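ENTRY TYPE: paired fold submission
RECORD: A
CONTENT: sequence, then structure tokens
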Amino acid sequence: MKFKIFNYGAGNIYSIQAALKREGVATSVTRTGAGIEEADALVLPGVGSFDQAARTLPMERTREIIVSGKPVLGVCLGLQLFYASSEEGSAKGLSLLKGRVRRFPSSVKVPQIGWNTLTIKGGSELVDGVAEGSWVYYVNSYVPEATGRSVAATSTYGVEYPALIAEKNVFGTQFHPEKSGPVGRRILQNFIRAVRK
């Protein structure tokens, strides 16, 4: 199985690449979108800013491939790119999911850095074997505004927000699974299993 990881030109993407390799997935990195049609799944990692990532990604081509049914995993910023817009910038997102991305309220320290718990909403194979109250690791200043069946789990930091998103072939984690120990590993394994189906 082969996963293609996008490189937006900022930050370290290799922790998510290493985590996937530990699960037996062959990975390669692209900045241009080369080879995404042949990949079994795409990964939008959690590094950089919304505008930079949106302007670096081959947006129209990427959206078309995901809409056609290609599985995709968005991590942190990668999840936020699933939405049409973000308060972080002015660029357009992929518009795969309804909602928008907003900054945390001024009542909390931003960014959120560290461990937080999951409230499981169910309804997705992404949370199979993940216990209520499991701890996951965050580094984020922005979160999606989204409700409904696509929200598989939430966390709370000043406001309750989607921590895990799953809608058809579109999966996302607002936290960093590659830094979240056994819980993060289980979620990555669940995504890999979904891709294999």
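RECORD: B
CONTENT: sequence, then structure tokens
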Amino acid sequence: MLSERQQQIINESIKLIDNKGIQGFTIKNLSKEIGISEPGIYRHFESKFAILNEILDSFKQNMLENQKAFNQNNVDPLSKLKLFFNKLFEKFIQNPALISVIFSEEIFQNENILSDKVNEIHAMNEQLVSSVFMELQKSKQISEKLNIETFNLIFFGSVRLLVRKWKYSGHSFNLQDKGNELFNTLLSLAK
């Protein structure tokens, strides 16, 4: 469990990456944003790497909790998929700066531990959607001809594009409404 100060450091780090990119994410810039000394930050995290690691761990933990809730929920597969879709958008609406971290895998490419975590998060999400997808195929709610890997590419690629478009437009549209519209379109294409 993170302390209040650690959570503040994480939140400000996400905002800093969002505003200045990974190049602007320095302990010096972070300390200015928070208003504490650089050694003060190092008392809570040993390095920038440790902060990035915690950001990914927190996001992964949130995804695990969502998946657990989905698996315990006895709703039909279509409702499960819609719930998953909505939870993703809710997470980004609550913390728009997170988009710059989660969908900027290139910032983790030179750190194997961090890129492995990003890949784990992607794999977890794809596994959840794949399991629901198979249930939908069994119940003949979507086409049996559609390949699961292809569906995941379309599904997650569409989410990524919509979320980034929302971010770069300055949140000029209702992400949840557009997300629902996208979900319904994807579903109709899958039938």
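NOTES ON RECORD B: The CA atoms of residues 10 and 54 lie 8 Å apart. The radius of gyration is 18 Å.
STATUS: closed
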